[in-house]
Amino acid sequence: MSRRGIYTAGMTEILASRAVYGTAQIRQLERHALEVLQLPVDALMKRAAQAAWQRLRSEWPLARSLLVCCGPGNNGGDGCLLAALAKAADWQVDVIALAPLTASHPGFEALQKAGVQVQVHVPGQPLPQADLQVDAIFGIGLNRAPEGLAADLIQALNAGTVPVLALDCPSGLNADTGAAPGAVVRADATITFLAGKSGLVTGQARDWAGRLIIEPLGLEEAVTALSPVATALPWPQLPPRPRAMHKGRNGHLLVVGGEHGTGGAVHLTAMAALRSGAGLVSVATRSEQVLAFNTRCPEVMALGVNGPPALESMLEKVTGLAVGPGLGQGAWGHALWLTALDSGKPMVLDADGLNMLAQESHALPGQLVLTPHPGEAARLLHTTVPDIEADRYAAVRALAQRYRAVVVLKGAGSLIGDPDGRIVYCPWGNPGMAVGGMGDTLTGIIGALLVQGHHPWEAAGLGVALHALAGDRAARAGERGLLPTDLLPELRALVNGQAHA
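RESULT FIELD:
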């Protein structure tokens, strides 16, 4: 049974209505189950094991042998109870533990009754063969790098060639932040109990968790009483347009950028804005770029500007701006950047617009969206990319508060935050979108939504969702070789409500 290719890493079951929570809130749910519902821990563990067993059989119907790797805590108990269920169904079952199990272990009694023998992991010794492997080593119970025998067992799991199901959270992954400080189980699927965990939906977690499955274990009502860390973006829906609509009512976006050699960036931004419904799109760029625009994209009104006076005359006519794609950080780009910021117009700031903001404080417009990737975010917060990726939630909060703006922290499972502390995550997107120009396309989409009258929070959320979904639709022909321009026809379908899946 081949391991890879069974699942595409993603969040196929954490969809628009799903919220995610921190481990402290999960512990609160467990206390609620114990104190209010009179549901002891072992009863919750039985529910978890039964849910995992049912899902496991439905996902891998041909499997008949199971290897469960167990740790010392409740996650290990879940795994032991699952092993007992498989043994009762006449499966071949092996259990590997980090140390001999004693009567105090939460899964000891179940294994004893089922007649399942437990082996202690020996470094360098191959794991028993099985159709499936289950990670029940730590779950959400570890927030540091695994060490010693645990790290070796995780590496042994990852070296296998059969599917891996993680219980609650891949061991070694921080369930709050998604950081992977050391060895982490690479799961093909993760069944997470009670509620979605915030660390499973963004950053490195997208590689480690595989397909996510939520099993609330009967505590759905208690979950709704909690305030989530983040919620998923809903499917993007734009209102229908009146029959008497005209281009002026659909907004006029001005794209500022395109230094020598980077005209393609503003071209992508402008085209994405048009495909996202902006009524008019102008570009303020180097004069040398204008001929290319007139030839390749006659719908865009491109004007060569040599300094602030020329840009100021354009600013009077537009609804909002997209500043930064291909702008450069030289004298020309810096002068246009200052002029654009001083306009006070609704704005999306990206690329070199962000890099200059990291170097120089300046008054910012009241309606502003920043769209940094982790490198730009690190510069804006004067820290490092590893620090950003170690806690993407903290990073997006800090950026939104420091700059009093809506912030899109790009990457796998993009996060959107605002100064009030709201955070949403994007459950769509794919690795094929990791190519130059994709960020410029997103800038154009968000800019188009801003000039069509959407608040920055709405524009950012709609824009990220449209961009990711367009990327997923375009990737049906394959992720490798995906180009930003491949998203443009998909965008048109999505903004017209023709692509709901």
